[in-house]
Amino acid sequence: MNLQAELAHTDARTRALLAELTDEQLSVPYDRGINPPVWEVGHAAFFYEYFLLRALGESAPRMPGYDEIWDSFEIRHERRWREGVVPDRATTLDYYTRVLDEVRGRMQGREPTDEECHLCEYAIAHQNMHIESMIWCRQTLGYAPPSSAIEPLPVGARAEGDAVIEGGRYPVGMRDGFSFDNERPGHDEQVAPFAISRTPVTVGEYLGFVDDGGYERPELWSFGGADWLESEETKRPLYWRRQDDRWQMRHFDRWIDLPNDAPMLHVNYW
């Protein structure tokens, strides 16, 4: 990985996502599935500071007194919305900029060590997860899509039938290269034979399940799924609605007809 190029790309995406929102939009209402966008940016900077800069010996905080604000293990989720807790956009961007400039300076002018490369790649990957989180925040709240957004794309040519996977011992997880800790240690696992669709379930295929009363038939759901279904009292995916005898899906801030050939989106584990 070209760390400098990847860092620049990730930085640009983050700044754009924040810049496109007004101050009013940044004051997002509490929702257990999202975070305030300004907090996301400060938290990403803290990750670089804590796991790269401080881990390699430079221990002084770049924003004294705010470790417990930016550290997701320390600040309760609901407290991130409390007035006066998270700094404003300008203060947070100043902190973010100072940290990333220091990271760039550390990686320039010499060959970084393997430890530096790993920790920097770790922080970049973490920031990209929060970029995803900032985007689904917009979907959750019905904000306009980011400038990088695209319309739902079709699956393409359908592949009929399932791919049959023979049983045997297969490598699971990562042995070499970069990965998060939950992908390690890489090991071999005995896997029973199984079959899996060659292409993702499409919106149109899932619509067939909805139209067939799938949300009203608990026998089709696992034990946990049936419990979730009863608690939610829903008969359709979250961002779907029936309008004038046709189904629509909310795509950020507007309703579109279901993109039947696109992969199914916005359903949870159950």
Describe the structure.
This protein has a three-stranded antiparallel sheet with strand order 5-6-7, with no helix packed on it. It has a two-stranded antiparallel ribbon with strand order 1-4. The chain is built from eight helices and seven strands; from the N terminus they run ααααααββββααβββ. It is globular. By secondary structure, the protein is α+β, with helices and mostly antiparallel strands. Helix 1 packs parallel to helix 6 (114-141), helix 3 (37-54) packs parallel to helix 5 and helix 3 (37-54) runs antiparallel to helix 6 (114-141). It starts with a helix and ends in a 13-residue tail after the last strand. The mean pLDDT is 93. 40% of the residues lie in helices and 12% in strands.
Kindly estimate the percentage of residues that lie in beta strands according to DSSP: 5-15%
Order of helices and strands: HHHHHHEEEEHHEEE
Helix content: 40-55%
Derived structural class: alpha+beta
Instruction: Outline the biggest β-sheet.
Output: 3 strands, antiparallel
Mean residue pLDDT: 93
Shape summary: globular
Number of helices, where a helix is a run of at least 4 consecutive DSSP H or I residues: 8
> How many E strands?
7
Low-confidence stretches: none
Multimeric state of these chains?
Answer: single chain
Integer-rounded radius of gyration = 22 Å
Distance between the termini: 36 Å
Q: Strand order, main sheet: write it out.
A: 5-6-7
Summarize the structure.
This protein is of the alpha+beta class. It contains 8 helices and 7 strands; from the N terminus they run ααααααββββααβββ.
